[in-house]
Specification:
Radius of gyration: 14 Å
Shape: elongated
Helix content: under 10%
Order of helices and strands: EEEEEEEEE
Distance between the termini: 20 Å
Length: about 100
């Protein structure tokens, strides 16, 4: 899964491998934390459950729990409000990686 994260202060790009049903954590700018859990559906679509946390000065607080149904190779964009009044823009392009042994 390729993920591009952005806020007013920074742009980051990353390729992230997460196993079907596994969870991955991403931290950005010390004040944003994402938990991503993709699940591949029978029709090949990818269901992504996410939790977005923002730093409130003392601790990370849950800012939102978006859930997305995405197609392989198609970009999905989100803009999420943060606790500090800013926002995070997230662009996700999911792609199933076939294991080869």
């Amino acid at each position: 899964m390729a993920i591009k994260l952005g806020t007013a202060a920074t742009q980051s790009r990353m390729n992230l491998e997460v196993n079907d049903g596994g969870q991955s954590e991403i931290k950005l700018e010390r004040n944003i934390r994402l938990l991503l859990k993709p699940t591949i559906q029978k029709d090949g679509a990818i269901f992504l459950a996410a939790e977005v946390y923002g730093w409130d000065g003392n601790d990370f607080k849950l800012a939102g729990k978006p859930a997305l149904l995405m197609r392989q190779g198609e970009e999905t964009r989100l803009e999420l409000p943060l606790l500090n009044g800013g926002s995070a823009r997230i662009s996700i392009v999911p792609k199933e990686i076939k294991a080869s042994f």
